[in-house]
Amino acid sequence: MSKVHNFSAGPSILAPEAFEKAIEAIRNFAGTGLSILEVSHRSKQFEQVMDDARAIVRELLQVPDTHESLFLQGGASSQFYMIPHNYLGTKAAYLNTGVWASGAIKEAKLYGEVIEVASSKAQNFNYIPKNYEIPADADYFHCTSNNTIYGTQMRSFPKSPVPMICDMSSDIFSRPVQVADFDLIYAGAQKNMGPAGVTLVIFKKDKQPVSVRPIPSMLDYRIHLDKESMYNTPPAFAILVSLYNLIWVKECGGVAEMEKRANDRASLLYGEIDRNPLFKGTCAAEDRSHMNVCFVLQDENPELEAKFMAACKEAGISGIKGHRLVGGFRASMYNALPLESTQALVNVMQTFHS
Ligand SMILES: *Cc1c(COP(=O)(O)O)cnc(C)c1O
Fold first, then answer.
1. 167 flagged as catalytic
2. CA-CA to 147 of 20 to 30 Å: which in 111, 126, 171, 284?
């Protein structure tokens, strides 16, 4: 692999081990003499992949027996409407913490009333609201665990009087989660699990949809569950590479180890942001994301900003241009990013200020 330090927000860096195995599976999948790209998803070899993928999700996140996982298509964005289609009867409660949360709210409004329990929009989503009230008569409460664009992360989840649903696209498998606290968790794979093309859904098996509207089969979680996530052709290659990446997570020591590594990367980089008089963070300190670190120059200076970007490029650092809604820089540090890459960025920041 090349020596690029990949800070891309998504599709994100994956473990080199996953690529090595994926290359082999493209040539000769599980000794079949066929490529994973051309083999039947009904073959026993692929059924094994699906079983293994669901098993490793269960193991890594300690998913209780009450819950099951699905590998669906359409990205996390399709969950924005699939969730209300199934579960929004009259009204649902949403926490608005950024672009993705707002996207989920927009789609839910097509189905019924949406109560925004709190929003940090007035401050460009630079903190996570707290102490809000979740109405006890809402069908569910929806939140976003990590705000990829703004660089904030929920350090804890509220005690919800109604079923809780969470978009964990950009921090799943980066820390332990109490899965039992949620009726449904979803995550587009391409941030911290695998390549684009598959979305993980973990949901409570006995959860019943509301009865106010018919549900097309492809939007019915129960049908996907009945068919063991193979109601139609699954995105086989994306699932296989996700499995390989999760095997790497497991071999490293699981999500507890991923959390430790994320803490180490985050304290190194935030430490430098706070120390270096040239830079400042954009978010409330207690809500800072360990996955996506947003920072800007202390004083706006487009010329200096361009110079810093050039110095990063020179050092092999890729993907740190900030999202246009925040500006400045964003270093996304997903599971497979080595601490040395964070150190390389910190080194540039240090030499830059001298
Ligand atoms: C990227 C992202 C999405 C959108 O995911 P797609 O798979 O592209 O639809 C949704 N939520 C969060 C938190 C994200 O980071």
1. yes
2. 111
- Helix, strand, coil distribution of the chain in percent, nearest 5: 40, 15, 45
Taking all residues of the chain, what is their mean pLDDT, rounded to a whole number? 97
Domains defined along the chain, listed by start: 16-252 (3.40.640.10), 255-353 (3.90.1150.10)
pLDDT at residue 212 above 50? yes
175 neighbors 259 (Cβ within 8 angstroms): yes
Question: Is 100 labeled as catalytic in the residue annotation?
Answer: yes
Share of the chain above pLDDT 70, in %: 99
Q: What is the enclosing helix (H) or strand (E) of 195?
A: none
Q: What is the pTM of this model?
A: 0.98
Spacing of C-alpha 118 from chain mean position? 22
167 CA to centre of ligand 1 in angstroms: 8
Instruction: Identify the active-site residue in 171, 191, 204, 287.
Output: 191
Q: Is the CB of 188 within 6 Å of ligand 1?
A: yes
* Residue 353, pLDDT score: 82
Ligand 1 close to Cβ of residue 240 (< 6 A): no
Residue with tokens 């706006």: 300
Q: Is 169 in the pocket of ligand 1 (CB under 6 A)?
A: yes
Percent of the chain with pLDDT over 90: 98
pLDDT tens digits along 186-208: 999 999 999 999 999 999 999 99
